[in-house]
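Section 5.1 Outputs to date
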Amino acid sequence: MGKGDRRTKRGKIFRGTFGKYRPRKKKKSKNLKEEKPQGSENQ
């Protein structure tokens, strides 16, 4: 089990693929400022 093994995380990194052992990271949303109410910071 190493770089040539498709089922391990190291093998996935070596091949540049994703799967169960190396899931893709979820993208962060860019709308973080819109979720917070503007007037409630100093109350």
